[in-house]
Amino acid sequence: MAERTATEGTGRRTIRIDALARVEGHGAVYVRVAGGRVVAAELRLFEPPRTFEALLRGRHFTEAPDITARICGICPVAYQMSACRAMEDACGVEVEEPVRELRRLLYWGEWIESHALHIHLLHAPDFLGYDDAMSMAREHGDAVRRGLDLKKVGNEIMTVLGGREIHPINVRVGGFYRVPTRAEIAPLRERLLWARDAALETVRWVGGLEAPEAELECELVALRHPDRYPAYEGRIASTAGLDIAPSAFEAHILEEQAPYTHALQARIAGRGAYLTGPLARYALNAEHLSPAAREAAREAGLGDVCRNPHRSIVVRAVEVAHACEEALRIVEAYVPPERPAVEVEPREATGHGCTEAPRGILYHRYDLAEDGTIREARIVPPTSQNQRAIEEDLRAAVERSLDLPRAELEHVCERVVRAHDPCISCATHFLTLEVEDT
Amino acid sequence: MSARRPRLAVWKFASCDGCQLSLLDCEDELLAVADRFRIAHFPEATSAAVRGPYDLSLVEGSITTEGDAEKLKRIRRVSRRLVTIGACATAGGIQALRNFAEAGAFVDAVYPRPDLIEALATSTAVSEHVPVDLELTGCPVSKSELLEVIGAYLAGREPALRRDAVCEECKRRGTVCVMVARGVPCLGPVTRAGCGALCPAYDRGCYGCFGPKETPNVPSLARWWRERLGAAPEEVRRALSTYNVNAPAFREGAGLGEGSGG
Fold it and tell me: Among all residues of chain A, which has the CA nearest to that of B61?
């Protein structure tokens, strides 16, 4: 990016990158090096705060899915799902299985759209040395067009089920406003048959991209479900043995405010930084991937656990393949549910919801008054959970690369951040890159 | 060749990214748009950045900090045509609800150390800070309207955007009126068309995400809601207090005064 400042002096170097490109929202990185050591590595999220938790107070519980969707245009369905699940938990309501299947289908649509966007438009240009997908398309036109068409399939699922791809209008507490007819769902089948093969082709393509060496040491946290690769449901689990219900989230995960960022940062009580998202989901749930997705992962050399953030592009592609197969399964078996939603009566209660947004676990908690008015809301998006782990990764990457010229070191930093696919709009309910060598 | 392509810039202030994502969601047209324009500033999509001036600037997001207000003025100076995209840039977005709360109350509620947060007491539309050439409403904007704005620019004409109500789109689509037939409260009569009348087609009332139509009669609709549909005044106030709460017609209809709040 253009906006950089640097100061160099006796034993002091300052590198700053004030505006990260190809990430969602405004962010910066600030790294300070002294005596050959990294003394500070900060991911600064500078998107201005929009204070959703505050503006939700006094709203009706039925408004939360539409309002919280506006936190993020990239993953609105994730907000709608976590909000619905929290409200249904508060009101003691269980949504019927056919409606849950439709919610999963909607969620797979968002995963396909969001992952295809990150893989092809945001991340792949780093491996191949382009500024963007548009210029990459001149040499790698087939891959870019395939990626755009995959993305479009995700959007088509969301449009059929949700009315539109960004801020879908058909999701409500208790289910949907209207469920699609078979005739409305049917055209998705042919598209998904194509997408399933295209996704496997994408796994082979990104599997062959040369990734820098890196090894994340932090704890990996994801939902885990006894027999599904998790999106809509599951308990919160980790590689260090965490295994809790979503309602126990706040007892185990602490959010803190650092002076240099508008996002609250999370850590696990008694331990520290953790990472949520594709690497964590894969590490904890790979056995539940569809056979073809699992085979593609094996061929791409992922192993049982992948701790290299640059290889997250492969995991995302594997997840797209899985999402396409699951979506196809739901589409082929689709019979319209008898009713689009269950009635939900409010009560004075607290409800918790945690689902897997494309970038990782998204937690909502609401305290409701008897008439359904929201008294308090708490929302913990994946990027604020990942911020510390990204900073640790940044520190490690800079320490490995101290002998590189400045421009290359800056590029290393940018690549690290982009590999983690931060969503800054989410995290502040805010990103800028500064590297300072002192 | 490339020297003659107009320069397109996309800017972001306080927002969800959804409106600029709408451009990336034009999967079939994106590469063609990239051929016809020089994409000079679009950080979400490209690391390349070209200095201004820019021929067409698309601005997403509302103004919530002193720094952003200053940045917007710089953008205006280097932009030949400046178009706001979406409810945040055009009306202040849902974050404009803070304009009607006690100063600082919202930041205090979210952050343990509110003193570390730099933010204005209000969230305001781009047009409250600089002259705007065109405003495209919607939360999010419609892809087809966004392409119309871009295509019209290339053709050197004014874009053809709808100014009528969502009701007109329901009639054209053949959707039975949810309010008349089923008593479902709907903001369609006062909301600008452009979405394709999605909500009624999905059996729910319009919730006004495209903002007020030209010359809306909000008090009349509010009376209908109360008298014919039995809606409580609180329900009317809430319905008008969402993504376009700071658009004058909705703000006044919600009883939140004539100023821009705050």
Answer: A48
Residue type, A378: R
Residues of B in contact with A74 (CB under 8 A): 17-18, 21
Interface test with A, best of B15, B16, B241 (most A CBs within 10 A): B16
Interface test with B, best of A45, A46, A50 (most B CBs within 10 A): A50
Q: What's the pLDDT score for residue A436?
A: 46
Distance CA A5, CA B224 (A): 59
DSSP A15-83: EEE---SSSBS-EEEEEEEETTEEEEEEEEE-SPP--HHHHTTTSBGGGHHHHHHTT-SSSHHHHHHHH
**Same domain flag for A335 and A242:** yes
Residue A264 has a pLDDT of 72
Give residue B103's pLDDT: 64
Mean pLDDT confidence for A55-78: 96
Q: How far is A139 from chain B (nearest CA, A)?
A: 13
The β-bridge relationship of strands B134-136 and A235-238 is unpaired
Q: Which of B93, B101, B139 sits opposite A167 (nearest CB)?
A: B139
- pLDDT tens across B46-71, in order? 988 899 899 999 999 999 999 999 99
Neighbouring C-beta atoms of residue A328, cutoff 10 Å: 20
* Domain range for A376: 51-385
Residue B3 pLDDT level (bands cut at 50, 70, 90): low
Is there a domain that residue A429 lies in?
no
User: Are residues A199 and A263 both part of a single domain?
Assistant: yes
A163: chain B residues, CB-CB within 8 Å: 198-199, 201-202
Find the mean pLDDT for residues B94-115. 77
> Which among B15, B39, B112 has CB closest to A134?
B39
Note the pLDDT of residue A428.
60
Question: Does A18 fall in a domain?
Answer: yes
Give the model's pLDDT for residue B260: 52
Given a cut of 80, whether residue A257 has pLDDT beyond it is: no
Whole-number Å distance between alpha carbons of A95 and B180: 30
Looking at the partner chain, which of A121, A165, A170 has a beta carbon nearest the beta carbon of B45? A121
The residue in chain A having the minimum alpha-carbon distance to the alpha carbon of residue B63 is: A48
Instruction: Report chain B residues whose CB lies below 8 A from the CB of A147.
Output: none
Q: What is the share, in percent, of chain A residues with pLDDT greater than 90?
A: 75
CATH code for position A314:
1.10.645.10
B119 vs A48, A169, A264: nearest CB:
A48
Nearest to B45 among A22, A52, A54 (CB): A22
Q: What pLDDT does residue B101 have?
A: 83
ipTM at complex level: 0.95
- Which residues, including other chains, have CB under 8 Å from residue A39's CB and lie 6 or more apart? A32, A33, A438
CA A394-A397-A401 angle, to 5 degrees, is 135
Going B79 to B82 to B86 to B91, the CA torsion angle's sign is positive
Q: How far apart are CA B78 and CA B57, in angstroms?
A: 9
Q: Which residues pair with A364 in a beta bridge?
A: A353, A379
CA distance A368 to chain B (A): 17
How many domains is chain A built from? 2
Do A281 and A220 belong to one domain? yes
- Rounded to a whole number of angstroms, the distance from the CA of B19 to the nearest CA of chain A is 8
Residues A124 and A110 placed together within one structural domain of the fold: yes
> Do residue A72 and residue A38 come from a single domain?
no
**Directed axis angle between helix A187-207 and helix A141-162, to 10°?**
140
B contacts of A48 (beta carbons < 8 Å): 13-14, 64-65, 68, 118-119
